[in-house]
Records
---
Amino acid sequence: MAGIPWLAEIRSSGKITKAADLAGVSYRHAWNLIEKWSAFSTPQTSLASLAHDGCDLAGMHLPQGELRKRTIAASKGWLNAGTHRVIGFVTREMGLMVAPGNPLGITTLERLLDPQIRFVNRDPDSGTRMLLTQLLAQHRIDPQHINGFEHAEFTHAAVAAYVASGMADVAFGVEAAARQFGLDFVRLVTEDYFFVSRKEILELEAVRRVLSVMRSQEFHAAIAQLPGYQVNDAGSIRTVREVFRTME
């Protein structure tokens, strides 16, 4: 399977059917692959994979603000201060994707309680769904009272496409996906996104090349073109204690 073009098609159109056709596989096979990949979609599952040698770089995103300590506490059990290192990457904006002009005036999570407002959610195993659930709990909002909360899609592009097509009024995800589909965006929280690795792989030539790209001006310029993303010490290497001491 041509993995990168296949994933690029999902990001571009939000349509699994078109991506499956491009790759020459069935819709069911494409869906099964996404389900398999979604097993690594939260900070905890990525770190668990790293701990069991299932990957070399584990992506991790932490919300800024009041929710940060809770996410750190849930992740610390998978981190080893002696063997792991943290690689800086980017920040990203998370919030509500709404129709152009925001005709329904959806500016807060509380507006999702209006039964006339149709919501489309991310899949239950995604880090985005976990973040939304934490935000709702913080605001003491019962997700069972949100119209469409159990209607789930696998990608940021997919939920944005739902809103853009008029099949939903609002979704929660990254700003870049909202702008890609011409939607308005209501920022709710900023996340720090970085990678965790075992310290010994930092000496590998392939990893050195990745770090060099992260530190380059070309990479910084490319990130600057993504709405809602900003470079944040990309390619810097710090210890687990350094990072979590400053983040708590």
---
Amino acid sequence: MIVLILEGSLLKSRKYRDVVERVADIVDNGPSESSNETISVCKKLDYSDCIQPIYEVPPNKYSAERILKILLDPKISASVICTVRPADITKSATYVVNIHKLEHPDDIKNDNFRKWEHSGSHPLYFRVQVEPGDHLYVEKCAAGATGDNVVLLRRLHSVHPSNNKFKRMIAFVSDSLNNPHYLCLLVYHLPEGFVPTVTYHGNFKGEHHFIQHGLALN
């Protein structure tokens, strides 16, 4: 059995707080040998041009337990949940999307990068339980398991033909009767320096306004 301690979003993460504290030190005490590194980290955390709220800067790989920890977090803030499909992706980012707000759950797959090359994964079965203190207990179980606390995790991995390092992962959770959980995880990995080509089509309507969810240093 795996014990997971629930954490907050990017804005409350330890890494983000550490960066903020280091920036404050530069402001108060002047630059140090590590200033350039701090400014570089801050620029990487600058997601002010993102249309939808970012949950976090994605790691290289998500474990199944980490995905469940995010999507089943009973205290996840509404401020980090997207209610429309994220668009105009320009950098690596992880989104939590409320698929019940979409016209159809499969709309999450229809971004503005046209066709992807897909490689799915077999569903994984887990028993989960939220205990006092918001600890999420996760135990992998056999395929076909049933019960009120059994969930299925499905991950759809994709690579874009324009660049084999431009990748997308969508993770869905459902109960043992295949009733979908209302949140899914949408992850984009873009290689450094790569600028994807965005194609607009009829599903994107109106003007989008940018929301600042990061820290920028000029």
---
Amino acid sequence: MEANAASPPEASGAGAVAAILAGKPDPVEASAGIDAIIATVAAEASAVVAEVAASSRKKKNPKAEAGGQDTGEEEEGLSEEMKAKIEAAKQKTLNALNVVRGTLDGLSNYQQQLHQLGDEQLRLEEQMKEAIENSRRMRARIREEQERVIALQEQAHVMEPEDDGEGRRV
């Protein structure tokens, strides 16, 4: 059984979200396969354990079975075939553990990136709130200035000399 480790998200803060939007592997989705890997490895390990238990019973000396002299001794230990099966199961288990570790590392990195994105979002929201408040203050100041200009224009209009009808100012 050979499983590919999940690719961790990109290193930049916006990279994780961009990776998801770009269709790259999502470590959260990749972790869904962990249960299947663990179940498969557990089933294979159980099968190997059953075979080991069955073959661990003492065997008669193979020489006696082949027509040689039976010394009455029994051979202890595992056959080469059983040792190979155990070694293969061990390798599969190690591979599965490496996949799980890689996925967990990817999830940890992804979680850290999400935390950083959340912090950045809060900072940006605060900046936006400040900008909106500054805009409101500026709008109020502009209104005050417009009112002041209107008042000055009215005052200047009152002070203007009137025309006497013949183009002369009185």
---
Amino acid sequence: MKKVLLFLGMLAVSATQAQMSITKSDGTPVSNGQVFSFNSLEYEDAYFGFLVHNNSAQTITARIECVDVINGTGAGMELCFGDVCLASVSPGHAYPSTAVAIAPGGTNSQFDHFLNTTPNNGGITDYVFKFYMEDAMGDPVGNNVTVIYRYDPNGLSTTAFNTTSTGAVVKSSVVENNLEIKASKNVQMELFDVNGKSVNRQNLVAGDHNIDVSHLSAGIYILSFNTDSNQKSSVKIIKK
């Protein structure tokens, strides 16, 4: 009996020591309580990609709670985390219903994100989200990180997700046969479909490039860039 209690105690200690941190999808650290403002409903400008990092030696399970929606209902707030992509959220609810398991030293999918698609009443809307870990019983454990996604149609956007940080310029996000890219420095390019499957991966040197995508099915793709210094960026591509 003592051994069982000792084992359970060790599990409890290890669970409370499990730590996570949050960054934007480009690797920029996210602080607890940080506010991210967006003044657009367009995909490229309103997209907030995030990564949950497991900094511990044990697998963690994480969820995101919608703590509050101020001046809004939660309808039109897209939340994708793990295998779930929702078109709306509700205050007091946590997502997904089954926590996302993240391996030691690992992260969640690079396609997970927040995206507001509704203007509400035209004023400022704050979506308050809390990232937290839970134990095998579903109880919160360890540290948590709260972020505020703010839609302010008359404000200045403080978060932009584009390709300029990696020195890559995509000439058009709507393509038919060729994807035209101008790289100002060496960069790795990778194209993903909406299921996260890599459909094209190339190392580009500085210069102009025409990538043949004529064989791909029409639809939405995510084009990602990564430099040798680990700078990352991504953009949505529409294949006609």
